[in-house]
Design brief:
With 340 residues, the chain is mostly helical. It contains 13 helices and no strands. It has two domains: 158 residues, no CATH class; 165 residues, no CATH class. 68% of the residues lie in helices and 0% in strands.
């Protein structure tokens, strides 16, 4: 007897989308696998072979995500669902991402065989690695959409979106770690001794890194706020979760501590902000400004720095202004509905 078709995405209205939550958490595990492989590249633990333990971890975590999503589709088809019904809402791009990442993996193996293994900046800008990056981001779309469907009602519905955002934020940070302030401690004296031109160039690279970090963090957090998918504690999870992975690339693990302090401060400010457009602008300022300020304060306390008071005080302000600009894009001044 043929069983009736069952929609694979239906769930009780007061329950979280457990499938999307599972995919989102596996996505975080996938992000960890990416950082493990990156750590190996940054610490000269790879040889000229494609078949390394680090690649096994990377592709193993990828296969967990791919298997979970594909299995869901196959089971729905076996229950009699059409292809349209079998693919959960928002997961079309996720399946495309799985295909792109698979193709990128084959291309990466051939690239390594032909040209050798990339190191440092080469690994981040390698064409095959950019294909893998594209596939990874596409894979995140499914659980992200699921957590914003029909509006959020706190962590129950927003959890897939929040955890997926941690993975995406970490992934973007990984691919641009040559600018990331938690991978490169430009304000610290002696950090730039091997860089031609030192001084001004190091300061410029450091400032650019903080500005980029501010823009990405603000964009992700404010987008979630705009979608009503930033419940209490979620901004802190974004800040600490992304920091915990970013610090691994330079072995600066202690920098998670100021990130935790920043998360607590941001959450405290958020709890006091009214759900108005002005509150949204203030949020746009504090979400990047506070983490940048606590990060710089920690560096000043722990190391000698060549940065002047002007740079140290002005960089968090610039980060906050970048966040305000992001908020103006997401919620323009003339928009009818204020976020929040």
């Amino acid at each position: 007897m043929t069983r009736p078709a069952v929609s694979p995405v239906q769930a009780p209205e007061d329950a979280p989308d457990r499938f999307s939550l599972r995919v989102a958490l596996l996505g975080v595990l996938f992000a960890i696998g990416i950082h493990v492989d990156g750590w190996a590249h940054n610490h000269d633990r790879v040889d000229e072979s494609f078949f390394t333990p680090w690649h096994a971890i990377l592709y193993g975590t990828y296969f967990l995500v791919a298997f979970t999503v594909i299995r869901r589709v196959v089971e729905a088809r076996a229950d009699g669902a059409s292809w349209r019904e079998a693919i959960p809402s928002g997961y079309g791009a996720t399946l495309a991402g799985i295909a792109v990442f698979s193709a990128g993996g084959v291309a990466d193996m051939l690239w390594h065989m032909a040209f050798g293994v990339e190191e440092s900046l080469e690994a981040l800008l390698s064409p095959t690695h950019l294909i893998l990056a594209t596939g990874g981001v596409l894979m995140a779309t499914g659980p992200f959409v699921a957590g914003t469907r029909e509006g959020s009602q706190g962590w129950k519905r927003a959890a897939p979106t929040v955890f997926t955002s941690v993975a995406v934020l970490s992934f973007v940070g990984f691919m641009t770690q040559y600018l990331h302030p938690m991978s490169n401690l430009w304000p610290v004296t002696g950090w730039h001794e091997s860089v031609p031109g030192a001084g001004e160039l190091a300061a410029a690279l450091g400032a650019a890194g903080f500005i980029w970090y501010a823009a990405v963090l603000a964009a992700v957090a404010l987008l979630l706020r705009r979608l009503d998918a930033l419940p209490p504690g979620a901004a802190g999870v974004l800040i600490v979760g992304s920091a915990a992975l970013a610090v691994t690339q330079g072995d600066h693990y202690w920098l998670v501590l100021p990130a935790i302090g920043a998360a607590l401060a941001v959450e405290s400010v958020m709890s006091r902000l009214p759900p108005t457009r002005t509150g949204y602008r203030v949020l746009g300022f504090v979400i990047p400004a506070i983490p940048v300020a606590t990060h710089l304060a920690a560096l000043v306390l722990a190391f000698e720095t060549e940065w002047s008071i002007h740079l140290l005080a002005g960089t968090p302000v610039m980060a906050g202004l970048v966040g305000v600009l992001v908020s103006l894009v997401l919620v323009p001044p003339g928009s009818i509905r204020a976020a929040g």
